[in-house]
Write a structure and sequence with these properties.
Number of helices: 5
Strand content: 15-25%
Number of strands: 5
Strand order of the largest sheet: 2-1-3-4-5
Radius of gyration: 13 Å
CATH topology: Rossmann fold
CATH superfamily: Response regulator
Shape: globular
Distance between the termini: 15 Å
Length: about 120
């Protein structure tokens, strides 16, 4: 069972994604901001991290850069409502990006993206 770290400050969205990922058979760890990520990565060693970009305390770009430097094999999916941030995240270490526009189609798109990333 693949282990996924879900990082997003939106509690409602994070809970919905948590349930979606668990129902798809993944073990899910969660963090409400980037400050919690280094400890979780060090202890839990997830296979993939899904990270929001715009968060308080420690934003996603910094979180992705740090994770990429310390864990080069970690697969990372960045999420944001802003395409500019997604482009930056991809250039700084995210393996894939997804625009936040969650509906039935995008849930499946995310699951497909996760499956693809875990196949590397």
């Amino acid at each position: 069972m693949a282990k996924i770290l879900l990082v997003d400050d939106d509690d409602v969205l994070r809970f919905g994604l948590l349930k979606l990922l668990q129902s798809a058979g993944y073990q899910v760890l969660e963090a409400s901001n980037g400050l919690k990520v280094p400890l979780i990565l060090a202890i839990e060693r997830p296979d993939l991290m899904i990270c929001d970009i715009i968060m308080p305390e420690r934003e996603g770009i910094e979180t992705i850069i740090d994770a990429r430097q310390k864990y080069p094999k970690l697969r990372i999916i960045a999420m944001s409502v802003d395409d500019v941030y997604l482009g930056a995240a991809e250039g700084l270490g995210a393996n894939a990006v997804m625009r936040k526009k969650f509906n039935t189609e995008s849930w499946q798109e995310l699951l497909d993206m996760i499956e693809l990333q875990l196949s590397f």
